[in-house]
Design goal:
Length: about 240
């Protein structure tokens, strides 16, 4: 019965719309700190870009974009993800359907190949793309998908982490949290990673580890800014050269 309910188009639209309005309310009542404070000036010369974040931290990411930052987000083809897709579109974010996987067979089955081409094409059109760094069922471990997109598009990866002081931790594989209104919030953007086109397998793994390190550091810093731990401020160099 639950499957029939959650795959009903009317129910999906209603829930997706409700989520969009809820997170708008959360964003409006959350006092956000953004690091670095000049990040919007820094990224202007690097558009379009690839924004990546952990599964479970994606609910508020549409609100860190400026109105002129057009973007599309990668969302799974799974029926449960349809609600997320509707919510994203209600928030003005386009969608690309597909997801990563740990095996080639699952990668094809889940639409990973077509989604990869779609993201590269989107970047060529001058539109930003957003995607989770970790693949389904393996939380907080950067997959190669975002590295492949950066390598073939020539665009930089900007790791971003978001956290709020008031939230409900959900019992899910991706460590998702339901952000609550009237919170202290933080959005931390790490230095960009540029992936050269002529990398061998070892070079690809090195880039994957670099994104992993920067995303972990951004996550720790975001948590510290909302009073959930301690982490030093991130040090930023030139966004045009970092990671090259």
């Amino acid at each position: 019965m639950w499957r029939r309910i959650r795959t009903n188009r009317g129910v999906q639209v209603a829930l997706g719309t409700a989520f969009a309005y809820y997170f708008k309310a959360v964003a409006r009542t959350t006092n956000f700190v953004v690091e670095p404070s000049d990040i919007y000036e820094r990224i202007e010369d690097n558009l379009p870009l690839i924004m990546t974040f952990w599964h479970g931290q994606h609910f508020l990411t549409p609100f860190v974009m400026k109105p002129h930052h057009k973007a599309k987000v990668l969302i799974s083809r799974h029926a449960d993800a349809e609600i997320n897709a509707i919510a994203a579109e209600k928030l003005g974010v386009g969608t690309i359907r597909g997801s990563g996987a740990t095996s080639p067979r699952d990668f094809h089955r889940k639409g990973g190949v077509s989604a990869t081409y779609a993201m590269i094409d989107t970047l060529e059109q001058g539109i930003n793309v957003a995607m989770t760094a970790d693949v389904p069922k393996i939380a907080r471990h950067v997959g190669k998908g975002v590295i492949v997109i950066a390598r073939h598009s020539g665009r930089p990866i900007f790791p971003i982490a978001m956290a709020t002081s008031r939230r409900i931790k959900l019992k899910s594989w991706d460590r998702a949290a339901l952000n609550l209104p009237f919170s202290k919030g933080a959005a931390v953007v790490a230095e960009p990673v540029w992936v050269p086109r002529d990398l061998d397998d070892a070079g690809m793994e090195a880039m994957r580890q670099l994104v992993q390190q920067r995303l972990e550091a951004a996550t720790a810093r975001a948590e510290a800014l909302v009073g959930r731990g301690q982490a030093p401020a991130l040090v930023y160099g030139s966004t045009s050269e970092a990671g090259r």
